[in-house]
Design goal:
The protein folds into two domains: 199 residues, no CATH class; 130 residues, no CATH class. It is 54% helix and 15% strand. The protein is built from 15 helices and nine strands. The relative contact order is 0.19.
Amino acid sequence: MSRQWRLAGQFLLWRQENRRVNWSALLSAVGVAIGAAVLILSLSVLNGFQTEVEVSLKRFEGAGILHPVDPQADPAAARETLADAGISSSPWAERKLVLQTDAEYRLVSARIVTDRDSLMGRLGESLLTLRPYPGRGRRVLIGSLLANKLALFPGDVVRLISPLDVSLGNPRPPQLEVTVRSIFELGVLDFDDAYIFIDFETARGLIPGLETMSGLALQEEVGAGELAALLPQGHWELTTWRSEHAELISAMELEKIGSMVVLFLIVLVAAFSATSTMVMAVMEKYRQIGILRSLGASRKFVVGLFLRQGLIIGALGIGLGAGAGTGLTLLQMATGIVPGPGGVYLDGLPMLLLWRDVALVVLGTLAITMLSAWYPARYAAAIEPGVAVNYQK
C-alpha cells in the first residue's frame, strides 16, 4: 500500500525531465485551498450575522406572545391559570401611533409592556445610552434609526397621538407628551426605524380600553402543546420570535445555501485544473504506465493510482484551506480585529464557526477533487501495454 501511495505521489508531483517539481499540481492544491478557506470564512460570516439577527429577535419579541383570537378570551383568567402552572406572564399590546416632534410627524409602532425595567434588562447591550435618562413621568424607549431621523436624544419631549381612537363624541385624537428615556439599536431595520416601547401606565392615558385588546407576554419559553392543555381551546394563539419572523429566517437559510453553492464553484474550477494536471501526468508517464501494465499491474491498480493523486491534491488543499479558514475565523471571534459594517456591530464583524459547516466543506471539497481524478484514472487504465512501451513523444 505504501509503495502505491509513493508511486502516485511521484507520478503527480515530479515531472519526468530532470525530476523537476510539477508546479501545476501544487497550484491545483492551492486553488482547492483558497476555495475551502473562502467557503469556511463566508459561511462563518453568514452564521455570525444570522446569530446576531436571532439574538435581536429574541430580545425584541421575548419568550413568546399569547394573542386573543376569540372575543371570550379572558386575559385575567388566563394569567391565573398560567401562574398556577408556574408560567409567568404579563399584559402586552401593540398599536400604531403618531409620534410628533417640533419639526415633523412620524407613524410608529408602539410595543406596550408592563415592566419597563425588565424590558431594558432584556434589551441589554442593545441600549445605546449606558445611563438611561432618569427623569420622572411618562417615558418611552425609541429605536436608533427613528431617533436619528427625528434628531431625538434622551431627555427630549415628544407627543404621542392615537389616531385610531377618534370617535364622534371626541373627534380630536388622544394626545400625550412623553420623555425619551433611552435609545435602543437591535441592528434590524424594521425595529430600529419604526418601533418605540411604552408601559401600560403611560399607554392607559392615551388608548381607551387598552386591557380589553391586549395579549399576554410570556417570561419563559413554553411549548404550544403545554399551553393548549392549560388554556381554553381556540381562545389564544401563541407566536414566538421564530414563528413571527419565519420568512426572514427562511431567507437567511436560503442565502446561506445559495452562497455555499456559488462558492463551491471556486473549488470546482480548481478541480478542473487538477483534472488537466493529471491528464498531463498521464501523457508524460505514458511509457511508465505501459511498463507497469506489462509487468502485471491491473487496470484497477492504475485507476487506484490516479485516484490517489486526486486524494493527494484534495488533502493538501483541504488541509491548507480548512486550517486557514478555521484559524482566521477563531481569531476574529476572539479579537474582533475586523470591524463590523456601519458601526452597528461594536465587537467587530460577527462570525460564528460551526463545525458541521467545516465538515461539509471538507467532505464536499474532497468529493469534488476525487471526481476530478476519475477521468484521468480511466484514461490511464485504458492504455495498452504494447502500444505504451513503444510510444515515442
